[in-house]
Design brief:
Elements: H1 3-8, E1 14-16, H2 25-33, E2 38-40, H3 47-60, E3 65-70, H4 73-86, E4 90-94, H5 101-113, E5 117-122, H6 125-133, E6 138-142, E7 148-149, H7 155-165, E8 170-173, H8 179-187, E9 192-195, H9 197-200, H10 209-217, E10 223-226, E11 234-237, H11 240-251, H12 254-273, H13 298-315
Parallel strand pairs: 1-9, 2-3, 3-4, 4-5, 5-6, 6-8, 8-9
Antiparallel strand pairs: 7-11, 10-11
Helix pairs in contact: 2-3, 4-5, 8-13, 11-12
The protein binds flavin mononucleotide.
Flavin mononucleotide binds near residues 22, 94 and 146.
Length: about 325
C-alpha cells in the first residue's frame, strides 16, 4: 500500500496544500471526500474561527483532514490548546525557516498523544531532518516553484535529497498540477503529491472569482517572488502591489523594508482572496498557474491527475535512450 495513504488513512496520495482564506471547510471536505487529504488553511487564524472550521469540516466529511499550524515558537502553546481540544485527524505544520529540535520533539509528542498524525512541510533539507528526527509522520518538501512562502530550492532538487536522507514517506510539493508532475515526482522517489495552486481553481473553494480568473489567465513569467531582501520570500502573481513591494525592497535597507512590508503582508492576502482586489491584494500562486486552464471539481483535479500519471508511467518502459 502507498505509504502516505497508509499513515494518513486516505485512499489517494494527494494532499491539498493549506491556503489561508481559500482552503476552508467546503474545499477541505471536497478533497477529503474525493479520497485525498484536505487541509484547513488556518495557520494564523483566531481560535474561534479554527474551532468553527474544524466543526464545519466534520459536518461535511467523515474522512481524515488536516489543520494547518505554523511552527513559530510563540504560536505553539496557543495552537496546541486548540489541537488537544479539537483533535483534528492530522496536524499539518508549516515551517518558516530554522526549526528548533527540542520544540519540535516537545510539541510533536503532545500532538501524537492527542491522537493526531503529523505532517511537516519543509522548504530545505536541514529543517526536514530536524522534523523527521523529532518524529513527524509524513514529510512534505516544497520547492520554490510553489505558491506562497518559499525558500530558494527547486522541487526537483529537494525531493531526491529528502528521499535519500529520510526513512519516512516523502511528499513532493511545488509546481505539481497534473499527471506529468505526479509521474515526475514518482520518478524522483516521492510517495505522495501536494498541490496548492491547482486547488485555487477548484469549484468548492470560496475564493473571490477574480482570483480564480487570474489563476486561469496566468502564464509563464506571471509570478514573482517578493520579500527576497527581508528574508520572507513569497511567490505571487505580478500586479501593482507586487511591483510596489519590490520597489520598496530596492529603495530601502533590509530593516526599513521589513518595517514597511509587515503591515502590507498582514492585510493584502485577504484583500485579494475575499474582496477580489487584483491591484492592491496579494494574489499568491505558484508557477504552475500557467497550466491551470479551467475551474474543476476537486475530485476531478485529483482523479484526472492520477489517471494521467498512470498513463505516463505505463508508457515509460518504451522510452528509448
Ligand atoms: C494562495 C496561497 C496561500 C497559501 N497559504 C498557505 C498557508 O496559509 N499555510 C501553508 O502552510 N502554506 C500555504 N500555501 C502553500 C501551499 O500550502 C502549498 O505548499 C503550495 O501551494 C504548493 O505549491 P503549488 O502552489 O505549486 O501547488 C499557500 C499557497 C497559496 C498559493
Amino acid at each position: 500500500m502507498n505509504r502516505v495513504c497508509e499513515v494518513l488513512g486516505i485512499e489517494k496520495p494527494v494532499i491539498q496544500g493549506p491556503m489561508a482564506w481559500i482552503s476552508t471547510a467546503p474545499l477541505v471536505a471536497a478533497v477529503s471526500n474525493a479520497g485525498g487529504l484536505g487541509v484547513l488553511g488556518v495557520g494564523f487564524a483566531p481560535e474561534p474561527f479554527i474551532m468553527d472550521q474544524i466543526a464545519k469540516t466534520r459536518e461535511l466529511t467523515d474522512k481524515p483532514f488536516g489543520m494547518n499550524c505554523i511552527m513559530i515558537p510563540d504560536n505553539l502553546e496557543h495552537v496546541t490548546g486548540i489541537i488537544t481540544a479539537a483533535k483534528p485527524p492530522v496536524v499539518y505544520a508549516d515551517t518558516i525557516d530554522g526549526l528548533d529540535p527540542a520544540l519540535c520533539k516537545k510539541y510533536f509528542d503532545i500532538w501524537h498523544e492527542a491522537g493526531c498524525k503529523i505532517i511537516v512541510k519543509a522548504s530545505h533539507i536541514a529543517d526536514a531532518k530536524v522534523a523527521a528526527d523529532a518524529g513527524c509522520d509524513v514529510m512534505i518538501v516544497k520547492g520554490w516553484e510553489g505558491g506562497g512562502h518559499v525558500t530558494f530550492e527547486a522541487t526537483t532538487v529537494l525531493v531526491p535529497q529528502a528521499v535519500d536522507l529520510l526513512d519516512m514517506p516523502v511528499v513532493a510539493s511545488g509546481g505539481l498540477a497534473d499527471g506529468r508532475g505526479i509521474a515526475a515526482a514518482i520518478a524522483m522517489g516521492a510517495d505522495g503529491f501536494e498541490m496548492g495552486t491547482a486547488f485555487m481553481a477548484a469549484c468548492a473553494n470560496m475564493v473571490h472569482p477574480n482570483v480564480k480568473q487570474a489563476v486561469i489567465d496566468a502564464g509563464d513569467m506571471s509570478t514573482v517572488i517578493t520579500g527576497y531582501s527581508t528574508d520572507e520570500p513569497c511567490r505571487q502573481i505580478k500586479n501593482k502591489l507586487a511591483n510596489e513591494l519590490i520597489a520598496i525592497e530596492a529603495n530601502h535597507t533590509k530593516a526599513e523594508a521589513a518595517e514597511l512590508l509587515r503591515p502590507v503582508a498582514e492585510s493584502s492576502l485577504k484583500k485579494a482572496m475575499m474582496e477580489g482586489d487584483m491591484e492592491d491584494g496579494a494574489v499568491m500562486a505558484g508557477q504552475i498557474t500557467a497550466l491551470i486552464k479551467e475551474e474543476r471539481p476537486a475530485a476531478v483535479i485529483i482523479d484526472a491527475a492520477i489517471a494521467e500519471a498512470k498513463e505516463i508511467l505505463a508508457k515509460m518502459p518504451a522510452f528509448e535512450f
